[in-house]
Predict the structure.
Amino acid sequence: MATTAPRTAGTRTPSAPPPGIRPDRTRLPRAFYWMVLPAVVLFLVFHTIPVLQGVFFSFTDSPGYGEWSFVGVDNYVALFTDPRVIAAYGFTFRFAFLATILVNAFALAVAIGLNARIKFKNTLRGIYFIPNVLSVLVIGYVFQYLFSGAVPTIATALGIDRLSTSILADPQLAWVGILILAVWQATAFNIIIYLAGLQTVPVELYEASSLDGASSWRQFRSITFPMIAGFFTINMVLALKTFLQVFDHIIALTNGGPGTSTESVGVLIYRGGFQGGEYGYQLANAVVFMIVIIAFAAFQLRVLQRREVSA
Amino acid sequence: MAPPRTVARLLVAGLAASTLVACSGGDGRTTLTFFQFKPEAVEYFEQRAAQFEAENPDIDIVVDNVPDPETALRARLVKDDVPDVLTLNGNGTFGELASAGIFVDYAGDPVLEDLNEGYVKILQDLGASDEGAVNGIPFAANASGVLYNVELFEQHGVEIPQTWDELIGAAQTFQAADVTPFYAMLGDAWTAQAPLAPLTAQTAPDGFFEARFAGEATFAEGWREAAEKELELFEYTQPNPAGFGYQEGTVAFAAGESAMLLLGSYAVPQIRSFEPDFTVGSFALPATDDPADTRLVSGVDVLVTAGAGGAHPEESRRFIDFLLEPDAVQDYAEQQVAIPALAGATNPDPALAGIQPYIRQERLVGFDDHQFIPAIPLGPLLQRLLIDKDADAFLDGLDDSWDRVAQRRTWGLGAVSS
């Protein structure tokens, strides 16, 4: 990416201030502080303080109301031996990795197609963006109807036994349904980012390479992909982060079932914390999960950005 | 342009003023929040609230009907925002909240005098803020057993089963005649708990839960028979039991597709809304081979209570007294095919005729699944049992989650105190 772009435009060149304007110079930055202040206050009050409160209550056995007492790190110790929690982490990671890879593969392929000189380019771009505008919950119910009604009916008519019952009712297959919905819905947003990226690639590069006789695969590997590597990083990080927090998809399709086979960490926190009354315990889970997500994002950024620079 | 500091002050003043405006009602009327949990009874309670407002012009009732009420209520409690008046289901969550002292104590209150004592006792057993406290007023009760298609039973010459073997025999008769004996609705995990309650209540040893709370019994022993019998019942369902939910099941039953439904009286209004052309009947689920041992599982479906330390105790009380007028309680019961919680009252509905003798003879037990706090995933485990058919995994899973939950909280499991 443009990591080495010279920073000239917009930077103020230091020049000796004319006498008498000195007070203005000190007032100007102060005005900026005032402009930033509301955002900082809002962020502190509505984000940072609740987070700290949450961390505090993760050291208690509070059900969210009434009496509670400190239990130290007991919640954290219990977390690491709770099979339900471990299963939820396992499900979430498997789901998030698969979904991230699939979404980025599809999005990149579709974006390259939509970037080519094809007919109805703008209409198609619009159509491909529609899933992103729809609410996950709403299409979730549509997909649920498809999986438990339409698909089994079609499969029965075609004689495919494996799909003649709803995959959402099968503990071994329910996650596939969730994956399909998630990938279908999330690809749209990544397409947009890739499209933006593809437009930054200079046409001359392709001209030069085609003169040298490069195949289109070679062009993609040696020009397109390295040139949009920054966009790839952003998409990977954002997609993984979103899929680790998967929640609406599951609520709409399986509600964590059958049994607890599609319980993601987010769903478990909601179920255990709010429905189950284990506020403190699930807060500890949420704190651990927050650290995990931050760690993953940081790790991804480091690895992928290093690759960007060397490309 | 005003100096920044003045702007900030103005902003702060403006914000403060707007919150003040939001707090005051304006016209001097008291506003009561009425948290109403039962989706089937929204219309009834909204009408009652409107009648009350007409008689009491100084009070304004805001009826708050929410989906997933228990979660919504917990979220309100986290914000210290306890509704003034509530209707709730008498289950484990109520017991947990009552034990935490969220609700008013009605012990010794004249309001309890005209009520069926058995139901007051059931609520007390679920959980109480103090020894002997009564934190809810029973309003309507339900019963969980078996709903059946009276015409189909007559057509196939099947008698009302009095024992477990007769129940299985009836199921086999229907299966042989190509009628689905029980319509399974495993898509909604809770529906599997409906037959589990009578099975465990009749097959688990006496005092099982007291012993379990004390750590002297296990589900693996005490509930094994119930788990196996539940599995046996689900051998007589339509194919793909997990593919259908409560909605599909009640529709199918109303359409005459299955002979029986393993649900309680609460499902009757839903079934009737699809206008079945047969009579819905009910009987208590016999889990043993001695008809004298059969007990009807009954619990408080709707209770009325108020938040402790509410801002308007006098007004809340007036509203509660209004809700509990005996005629209104009876009306509700008849509309909703429920059992009125009034002493000596009955509901002449034909759908309840089969279980009426049990109520009269007080051959009742509470819902065992109400002893579970929701942190123990009974519903999902049970759903899994009926899909995978692995009784050991289910029972060990219950024991394991029970022990884990017990270990990580210091304030007890709720209902029966150890």
In short: Chain A touches chain B at residues 30-31, 34, 37, 61, 63-69, 71, 74-75, 78, 82-84, 148, 152, 165-166, 169-171, 256-261, 263, 271-272, 274-279, 281 (CB under 8 Å). Chain A has twelve helices and no strands. Confidence is low (pLDDT under 50) at residues 1-13 of chain A. The radius of gyration of chain A is 25 Å.
